[in-house]
Structure formats: C-alpha cells, structure tokens
Design brief:
- By secondary structure, this protein is an alpha/beta fold.
- It is globular and about 30 Å long.
- It has a four-stranded parallel β-sheet with strand order 1-2-3-4.
- The protein starts with 8 loop residues before the first helix and ends in an 8-residue tail after the last helix.
- Helices cover 33% and strands 9% of the residues.
- It has one domain.
- It is built from five helices and four strands.
C-alpha cells in the first residue's frame, strides 16, 4: 500500500481487520493515512515484524502509540520506520522507551549531532533551510 493516496481510513481499517492477524509486514510508506480510525480496529497483529510509515506526515503521536498498543504489534515489531513522518522526537523517545527491543528508524533522531562542527563555523553566516 506504499504510495497509495486513494484509499479511505475506513477502507484501510476494514482491510486491516480482515488480514491483520496474518500480516508480517505493513508498508504504508508515503500514504495519506492519519490512522484516525484506530479505535475501529478489532484485529491484532501478532506476526507483524515490520511497519513502514516513512513519509506519512499526517500521523499524530497519540494515534501511533494507540495503534501499537491496540494491535499488539508493539511487542512483535522488529522495525518501525518513521523517517520523514513528522511524529516528533518525543514520540520516538516514547516508542523506544515502551518497546526497547524495536528498532525505530527516524532520520531526525538518528542523525542528531551529525555535522555539529560545521554548524558552529557557519553561525555567523545566513542559514537557509
């Protein structure tokens, strides 16, 4: 379902309720999901090992934590990809604290401190981002 823009939250939840118990990998990379219907999930995902939410810019911290808890996949996940998802460092910190055996990929956290020396040298110059 990576790069899918034309599905509804209701459709996603309906599909996940039907196949969630069998999923080993769920790739929602760059989709438009909000996970806003997470309360409607009835399935658990005991076999889910990889969850890719890279580029899912609409997912709020509360919804992600609720999804991991409600589906039970937080305990089975080996890899959670949050690169470019904008959930924030506090969410990543919370996920890592709650699920210490999970590898959480987040470009903002993993590259923290990279290039600090260069940034100090450029402090007097105009910075454009």
């Amino acid at each position: 379902m990576a790069w899918c823009y034309n599905f509804t939250e209701e459709g996603l939840i309906s599909l996940l309720n039907k196949v969630g118990v069998h999923l080993k990998k769920l790739d929602l990379k760059h989709s438009t999901t909000y996970l806003s219907q997470v309360d409607a999930l009835t399935a658990t995902f005991p076999k889910l090992k990889e969850l890719n939410l890279e580029g899912c810019k609409n997912i709020a911290k509360v919804r992600l934590l609720s999804f991991l808890s409600k589906t039970g996949c937080g305990n089975s996940l080996k890899t959670l990809n949050l690169n470019w998802s904008h959930v924030g460092e506090d969410c990543v910190t919370n996920v890592r604290a709650q699920y210490p055996n999970m590898t959480v990929k987040d470009n903002y956290v993993e590259v923290e401190g990279y290039g600090d020396e260069e940034e100090e040298e450029d402090e007097d110059e105009d910075n454009y981002y």
